[in-house]
Write a structure and sequence with these properties.
The chain is an alpha/beta fold. The chain contains 7 helices and 7 strands, in the order βαβαβαβαβββααα. Helix 1 links the parallel strand 1 and strand 2.
Length: 175
């Protein structure tokens, strides 16, 4: 399918733990033209999670287009087709979505809390994922910069890819 505009892929659940509320709020401040393909999958565990995620779904921003659930085997096609991936904007660290996207050479927007340390080979490693704030206005600025600057995307992807290669090295995992 041809893209009409810059396209983010967001394959994770819609819900408070994933920072969907933060993303929706930040989109109000964005000035660039893009779309987000969001998998129609929401938190529905407790009554509160179900209520909050349903509310998020009912207040879909104009930049977000819901797509049906994707079979696991088809996920790489979506990553490869997109221009970038939006990960978790709440917890301050990365999850599998971010690692998968980077392994398929797609730059990722994912909030990093600099107080969370990653220990590898006995030393602390800094996460390359950005932004370093989950304030909606700062995320909006980062999204706009990400959409409009190929250099920013390429530089970020290089840092993310080098990092993911180090932390996902199968030989290190085996050790």
């Amino acid at each position: 399918k041809n893209k009409e505009k810059f396209t983010f892929f967001c394959p994770q659940r819609m819900g408070i733990p994933k920072g969907t509320d933060i993303l929706w709020e930040s989109l109000k401040f964005c000035k660039s033209d893009f779309q987000i393909l969001q998998v129609d999958w929401r938190d529905d565990g407790t009554e509160e999670e179900d209520r909050l995620s349903l509310k998020l779904k009912e207040n879909l921003p104009s930049q977000v287009k819901l797509i049906p659930m994707i079979k696991r085997k088809d996920m790489p096609k979506y990553y490869q087709w997109s221009d970038g991936v939006i990960g978790n904007l709440r917890i301050g660290s990365f999850e599998y979505v971010e690692l998968e996207a980077v392994m398929l050479k797609k730059p990722v927007i994912n909030y990093t809390n600099k107080n969370i340390q990653i220990i590898l080979d006995g030393g602390e490693n800094e996460s390359p994922f950005e932004p370093n704030s989950n304030d909606p206005k700062e995320i909006a600025k980062f999204i706009d910069d990400f959409v409009t600057s190929e250099k920013l995307r390429l530089d970020l992807l290089k840092k993310e890819f080098d990092f993911v290669q180090r932390i996902s090295n199968p030989e290190k995992a085996a050790e």
